[in-house]
């Protein structure tokens, strides 16, 4: 089995800007008229967009890898503020009409639009991250976030000195409940004396739960004031505020999705990013692109868990190995989850 460091390299290997498409929302592009080259993978970002140092940037790394390997034109499309399902339908339809294949919607919010558009373009392969959409030409790319979060909980329980840790979720929805459930279970199984403070930033994504670093910072500051000394966030772009708050007070933060210790935009806080719960969105996006290139497109539910290194925990920060008992406890928990000894809750 690959070591988690390989997963990390895939998840955070963001390089040059992607090529463009014309559709709703902003794009990045390179010179050349439509039709100059074969068109391949296109991704439509979730709330927070490119540059979130987390979920969306992980998806971009998969697009970037596919572009380099398959030498075709790609597109990555930004969301618009306050957009509707109709806007997403228009975006996906535009990409399909332009000849992109496959087309990936990054985030559960693309569910209704993906179902509608994929039915109209049966010869195009579609993928959706973090949701299940029925369709003969749709691959549902889902992850065992609860398993990675369990490992984050083990790490937090080993690192805390106050026996109080925090969880900040971006939006109060079932997907983020998986992160919280795994984290709490990992903490409790490691040290039942450790208290977990939990807070969700908003009830809906439209309220900015995944795109407001100020909200994340305020939530983390509140938990730190209540004695938390390790704070785990599953909040997209808002998580940057959580990391800033923890680092400012010289407490531990735990990142999410990408290895946030390695993110350039968070470099000034990196010494306080103990680890990150990894979710190989980039690897999943690339896997779909490769399957289409191989003329064997993935369809149905594709689950990425610890067994396939689809999720994991980063060890990039040298301090990770210096926390007494942390690495051994995480390694033991990982093995137990993989062999089925530990069953991780999802809610």
TrEMBL record:
Keyword Coiled coil applies: no
Signal peptide start-end: 1-20
Subcellular location, record wording: Cell membrane
Keywords annotated in UniProt: Cell membrane, Lipoprotein, Membrane, Signal
Keyword flag Membrane: yes
Residues of the ABC transporter substrate-binding protein PnrA-like domain: 48-338
Membrane topology designation: Lipid-anchor
Family: Belongs to the BMP lipoprotein family.
Name assigned to this protein: BMP family ABC transporter substrate-binding protein
Organism: Streptomyces ureilyticus
Lineage: Bacteria, Bacillati, Actinomycetota, Actinomycetes, Kitasatosporales
């Amino acid at each position: 089995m690959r070591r988690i460091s390989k997963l990390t390299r895939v998840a955070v290997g963001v390089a040059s800007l992607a090529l463009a498409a014309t559709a709703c929302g902003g794009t990045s592009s390179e010179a050349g008229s439509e039709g100059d080259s074969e068109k391949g993978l296109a991704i439509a970002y979730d709330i927070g967009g490119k540059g979130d140092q987390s979920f969306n940037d992980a998806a971009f790394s998969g697009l970037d890898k596919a572009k380099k390997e398959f030498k075709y034109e790609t597109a990555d499309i930004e969301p618009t503020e306050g957009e509707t399902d109709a806007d997403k339908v228009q975006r996906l339809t535009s990409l399909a009409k332009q000849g992109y294949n496959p087309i990936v919607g990054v985030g559960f919010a693309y569910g209704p639009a993906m179902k509608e558009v994929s039915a109209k373009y049966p010869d195009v392969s579609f993928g959706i991250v973090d949701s299940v959409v029925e369709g003969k030409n749709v691959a549902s790319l889902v992850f065992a976030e609860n398993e990675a979060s369990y490992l984050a909980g083990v790490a937090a329980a080993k690192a805390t000195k106050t026996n109080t840790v925090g969880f900040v979720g971006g939006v109060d929805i079932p997907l983020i409940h998986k992160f919280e459930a795994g984290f709490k279970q990992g903490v409790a199984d490691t040290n039942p004396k450790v208290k977990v403070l939990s807070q969700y930033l908003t009830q809906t994504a439209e309220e900015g739960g995944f795109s407001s670093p100020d909200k994340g910072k305020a939530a983390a500051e509140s938990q730190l004031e209540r004695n938390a000394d390790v704070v785990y966030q599953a909040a997209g772009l808002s998580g940057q505020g959580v990391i800033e708050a923890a680092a400012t007070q010289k407490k531990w933060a735990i990142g999410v999705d990408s290895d946030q210790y390695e993110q350039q935009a968070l470099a000034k806080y990196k010494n306080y990013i103990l680890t990150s719960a990894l979710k190989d969105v980039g690897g999943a996006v690339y896997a779909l692109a490769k399957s289409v290139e191989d003329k064997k497109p993935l369809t149905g539910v594709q689950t990425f868990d610890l067994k396939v290194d689809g999720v994991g925990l980063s060890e990039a920060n040298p301090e990770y190995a210096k926390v007494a008992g942390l690495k051994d406890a995480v390694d033991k928990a990982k093995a137990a989850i993989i062999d089925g000894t530990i069953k991780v809750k999802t809610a």
